[in-house]
Amino acid sequence: MKRISILLLILVVPTALFAQNWGDSAAYPVHATPFGMTYGDWQAAYLQWFFSVPASINPAVTAGADCNVAQSSGPVFYLPTWILSNTFTQKCTVPASKNLLLFTLWWECSNIETPPSYGANPQDMRACAAAAEDGVEVNTLKLTVDRHDMSALLREMRHQSPYYDFTMPATDNILGLDGVTSGSSVSDGYTVMLKPLSPGKHVIHFEGTCSTGPGCPTSYAFTEYLTVQ
Prior knowledge:
Blueprint: H1 39-52, E1 76-78, E2 87-94, E3 99-110, H2 122-133, E4 136-145, E5 148-149, H3 151-155, E6 158-160, E7 164-167, E8 182-194, E9 200-210, E10 218-228
Parallel strand pairs: 1-3, 2-10
Antiparallel strand pairs: 3-8, 4-5, 4-9, 6-8, 7-8, 9-10
């Protein structure tokens, strides 16, 4: 399934780093509006960042790419959680003050792509993205952050973005559309915003399966190794 990411957590962190405050307070809940924006708004913001970064240096598709490329100066850091294959691993250095946005198992439809990712208008885009996302098997979604299982929270966190505009480079863009520099889109997917992690090493792992829709049936997994400093 296109643009889907997953995280399965593997323990590689010393016990001393687990002074983190875990539980419901570790992430913003489903109906929260972190920094005045809904989770759907943050999906749109994530994808505006995602589309703006040239494909050759985009950390969402290139292992080892700089995760800090084009990140905003605001309070939220966009973790590059998209994969081109069934499994993907990325290493990122993250500022200690940043909240971390995980946008996982997502699909978007725009007015510049071809089916199954095309929508002629906002209504069509919403239906297109939702239809693809409906194929996700919710009970397969797993999310761990260090030793902590956050799967139950993730399974409640499906959101759809508002209709939004985005820009991208005329060449080397993520969609492979030379000469196309802008579009409009709607996304659908599972989104979690973690509050700032303690300085040190952390591991985030996500995984999940889709049964129907584009790219399905397939299982996906994504692991992110973070250095917070």
